[in-house]
Design a protein that fits this description.
heterodimer, A: 257 residues, alpha+beta, Ribosomal Protein S5, domain 2, 4-stranded antiparallel beta sheet, 5 helices, 27% helix, elongated, B: 229 residues
């Protein structure tokens, strides 16, 4: 174990963090700006500490899945752009970017955040397709929570484009909002030594041995879980994270509005 | 045509906003907005060059990656570089190369990554302006900044800093130009459309004039970053 990691472990055992935050405290301020990219149908920029992400929503039309003829679809894609960290390299999304996109996707899907039935235009023939693209701009840990906030803020910001028959009229937006039923919020925990912390920065992520992402909706229900890291986690730890996530997610949800 | 679509004069730039040092993970970074076009550039290096066979024992190599965010254009662009992005990365690299003292850092690489957040024509020029500031902030020794702007001909008139609407006009000419403003050396010149010899001369003059204005804004933004507060 490197000196840096053992130092963080030493601090964690005394319930102290390098930036003097409480163990279950998010970095502040959390900054969210919407409508940051005018050609997107919805967009949001999120700054969580030094971590920065941008999410954009593009709305298109297409055929529904044969087994869900009266439901629209959505697709989450994440790009860990090489601009965001010396650790990232240009090229198609790797394991980590794909895992992040899938965590966000499952959170939105399980919470029924988007009312997919309302995205049906002509049953079995034409439905709205929503693309949510997330770009990491500056990586200082916890891209998941920043991305979840950005994705939901961009979805809330989005307006349907104008439709002419079966084609989108580009450049002409309507003022109709997307059918958003719920705002799922993710809370990321990592364990350093034996201590659990929330919202790890990059140094803390590097020093951690395992972690857990808990996504909750506004009814205190857990919508998605993802265990992180290589070491095992205890049931007690999982339950503690869930309890804290239920509380913390309420705080974070206010930023999305 | 008396006035341009957005009411600008023929030799008038769009509104420009520049910020230096926006991303902490990079060695240098900058945002350059011109009208509705926004480019973000991050520079890394000089650092170890991978893969090793690309190393040059005489000098550093400069690598540039230009990428458009999928939602930066009206119709969603599929992620990852296409033919256009690959060509643009190359011309941007060549536009910046003459400004950098690459010979001071043999065997290393200097990497510049550019993300287009919002596109309304002139993205390669905005990229070059942002990238040269990112390189400067990274502390990489340079002969000069590089400033760039689009020039063209719309409805028979030579104009500075075209929008997408102007670029899409029937018969429009589009000519991006980049210079090292100190000695007015041209480091990027591309053109499509039809121009006479005299029009070309006029267009280059107009481009250089635009670049010099941008240069002042770039220098101001760079100084702003290092201002003692």
């Amino acid at each position: 174990m490197s000196e840096k990691k053992s130092y963080l472990k030493h601090l964690a055992e005394k319930n102290v963090r390098l930036d003097e935050r409480d163990m279950f405290e998010y970095r502040k301020p959390i900054e969210i700006k919407t409508n940051v990219s005018k050609n997107a149908d919805g967009s949001a920029f999120v700054k969580l500490g030094e971590t920065q992400v941008i999410a954009g929503v593009k709305i298109s039309v297409g055929e529904p899945f044969p087994d869900r003829p009266d439901e629209g679809t959505f697709i989450v894609n994440a790009e860990f752009a090489a601009i965001a960290s010396p650790r990232f390299e240009p090229g198609p999304p790797g394991e980590d970017a794909i895992e992040l996109a899938r965590i966000i996707d499952r959170g939105i899907r399980s919470a029924n955040a988007i009312d997919l039935k309302k995205l049906c235009i002509d049953s079995g023939k034409l439905v709205w397709i929503i693309f949510i693209d997330i770009y990491a701009l500056n990586y200082d840990g916890n891209l998941v929570d920043a991305s979840m906030l950005a994705a939901m803020a961009a979805l809330k910001d989005a307006r349907f484009p104008k439709l002419d028959g079966e084609k989108i009229v580009y450049g002409e937006k309507t003022d109709k909002k997307l059918p958003i039923n719920s705002i799922p919020i993710s809370c990321t925990f990592v364990r350093i030594g034996n201590a659990m912390i929330i919202d790890p920065n990059l140094k803390e992520e590097d020093a951690s041995n395992c972690g857990l992402v808990v996504t909750c909706n506004e009814n205190d229900e857990i919508c998605a879980l993802q265990k992180l890291g290589l070491e095992a986690i205890n049931e007690d730890e999982v339950l503690k994270c869930v309890e804290i996530a239920i509380e913390k997610s309420k705080e974070l949800r206010k930023y999305v509005g | 045509m008396e006035k341009r679509f957005d009411g600008r004069k023929f030799d008038e730039l769009r509104e420009i906003e520049v910020k230096v040092g926006i991303l902490s993970a990079c060695d240098g970074s900058a945002m350059f907005r011109i009208g509705n076009t926004i480019a973000i550039a991050g520079a890394f290096g000089p650092r170890e060059c991978h893969p090793k066979h690309l190393q040059d024992p005489e000098k550093a190599i400069l690598k540039c990656h230009y990428d458009m965010m999928t939602f930066s254009v009206p119709e969603r662009k599929s992620p990852g570089p296409g033919r256009r992005e690959i060509e643009l990365s190359s011309v941007i690299r060549r536009a910046l190369t003459p400004a950098i003292f690459l010979e001071e850092f043999p065997k290393t690489s200097i990497d510049v990554f550019i993300q287009i957040m919002q596109a309304d024509a002139g993205t390669r020029c905005a990229s070059i302006c942002a990238a040269s500031l990112a390189l400067a902030e990274a502390g990489i020794p340079m002969r000069d900044l590089v400033s760039a702007v689009g020039v063209g001909k719309v409805n028979g008139k030579l104009v500075l800093d075209l929008t997408k609407e102007e670029e899409d006009t029937e018969g429009a000419v589009d000519m991006p130009i980049a210079i090292m403003p100190g000695k007015k050396k041209i480091t990027l010149l591309q053109m499509d459309g039809k121009l006479s010899r005299d029009e070309l001369e006029e267009a280059i003059k107009l481009g250089v004039k635009g670049c010099l204005q941008i240069y002042e804004i770039q220098k101001k933004a760079l100084k702003e970053k290092y201002k003692v507060r």
